[in-house]
Specification:
Length: 58
């Protein structure tokens, strides 16, 4: 089952949707998105926890 993360669920105003086959893949894409779109060079631990909690089964 695919995993999906809506950027807005992490507390942003962003409607970007990240999809992946695994949580790891979504986390990786989310880190890249955070860097490219939100200028987050490094994702803080509390944001990582939020992202993990916000990942849902598609
Ligand atoms: Zn975003």
């Amino acid at each position: 089952m695919a995993k999906v993360l809506v950027c807005k669920d992490v507390g942003t105003e962003c409607n970007h949707v990240i999809k992946g086959q695994t949580v790891e893949e979504v986390m990786q894409k989310a880190a890249q998105h955070a860097k490219e779109v939100h200028g987050m060079a490094q994702v803080p631990a509390e944001v990582v926890a939020k992202v993990q909690a916000a990942i849902k089964d598609e």
